[in-house]
Amino acid sequence: MDGFLPGNAKSYEPLQRQTADENRDDREEAIVEICLIAAEGARSRGEESRLGRPLFPPLGLMTVAGLAPAQHNVTIIDESIEPADLGIEPDLIGLTAMTAAAPRAYQLADEYRARGVPTLAVDDGEVL
Questions:
Q1: ∠ CA 106-57-78 to the nearest 5 degrees?
Q2: Among positive and negative, which fits the CA dihedral 80, 84, 90, 94?
Q3: Strands, E, within 7-65: which ranges?
Q4: pTM
């Protein structure tokens, strides 16, 4: 593998995911409740016939969930299957949407932010 690297570069060592126990020092690690939501525009447009049959699974949210530290609790909601619960109170909300569903993502972000829940929204790779 070293033959593919520039002169002074070190060989690639894959990152090993550490468990919460391996990362722990003398203090207790906080467990963060994270809710990741894939907004669905059909919900805000009243197109009920499109719901329950997702065109694309929320692979980006699945990737983010997989990268979260092991001690955190991550929930994924795909609004093409079920609506987001506006009554939940996680420590953090992450939203994603395709462009057609952006108004619904904005609506959800406004609802959660109004209740003081930190909310991060991403639309086609742009943080909103």
A1: 45
A2: positive
A3: 33-38
A4: 0.68
